[in-house]
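Researcher: We plan to redesign the surface later, but first we want a full-length starting point. Tokens attached.
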């Protein structure tokens, strides 16, 4: 009788293992069916062109050896760029300045803004209203956003110059054109793109802050922690992965900034920005 019970227990254990394997295998098949088209498209449309472009940039491929595939690895292409293009140093300098400045707004300022709106402001209605206000530029069509900025900064009919004069800024300090004069055009470009980028970071950070367990915050409050201490020692450390994601995403996005710059400054860039994507477009 004991041997029979042991055999049945062993058989049930084996059946349980087989059932678990079947369940996991079924999930694997299901994931494979749904993800294969997406992964295939990403590999063919995104990853392959990037890898091929990087490889070709290190070769001497031209129309003569295109069909023979008799190419060699070389750095001549990069040498020619730095030797014959006088704008390369300026392109790199302005791109670094632009990316780092806007990234600070998109990743750091949006984090502070999210903590204030999602945690420090207790009135939920006010918090939602302010978050929606910051989100409006992101959901607004790009051309509408550009036209509003062009109207706002217009030296004759816009509100920016009169507003600054009302705040005490002398009229002679203001530029004749925010789009053409340096460094005002570069500062404006940072603000224009930072305002939109901050809303993206705010969405990610707010969702992460709302997911922080209330028990941890309540325990810290019982121990006498202030709101700023909770934000510094609990909320921010728990947001390390969202911060990393926003920083990486926004860095790649800023390296490819083009749409808003083109619509506001036109094809010439107003002399204010000659970044990598603008140089590539030219």
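Model: Full-length starting sequence:
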């Amino acid at each position: 009788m004991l041997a029979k019970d042991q055999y049945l227990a062993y058989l049930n254990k084996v059946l349980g293992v087989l059932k678990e394997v079947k369940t996991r295998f079924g999930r694997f098949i299901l994931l494979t069916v749904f993800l294969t088209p997406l992964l295939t498209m990403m590999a063919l449309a995104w990853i392959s062109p990037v890898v091929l472009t990087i490889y070709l940039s290190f070769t001497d491929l031209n129309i003569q050896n295109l069909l023979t595939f008799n190419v060699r690895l070389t750095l001549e292409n990069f040498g020619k760029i730095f030797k014959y293009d006088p704008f390369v140093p300026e392109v790199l300098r302005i791109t670094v300045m632009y990316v780092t400045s806007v990234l600070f707004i998109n990743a750091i300022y949006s984090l502070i803004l999210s903590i204030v709106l999602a945690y420090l402001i207790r009135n939920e209605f006010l918090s939602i209203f302010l978050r929606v206000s910051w989100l409006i530029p992101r959901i607004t069509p790009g051309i509408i956003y550009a036209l509003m900025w062009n109207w706002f900064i217009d030296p004759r009919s816009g509100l920016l110059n009169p507003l600054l004069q009302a705040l005490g800024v002398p009229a002679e300090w203001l530029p004749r054109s925010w789009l053409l004069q340096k460094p005002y055009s570069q500062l404006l470009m940072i603000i224009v793109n930072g305002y939109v980028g901050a809303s993206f970071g705010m969405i990610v950070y707010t969702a992460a802050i709302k997911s922080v367990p209330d028990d941890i915050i309540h325990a810290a409050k019982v121990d006498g922690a202030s709101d700023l201490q909770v934000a510094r020692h609990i909320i921010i450390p728990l947001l390390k992965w969202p911060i990393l994601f926003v920083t990486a995403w926004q860095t790649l996005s800023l390296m490819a900034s083009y749409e808003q710059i083109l619509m506001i400054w036109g094809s010439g860039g107003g002399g204010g920005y000659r970044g990598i994507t603008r140089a590539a477009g030219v």
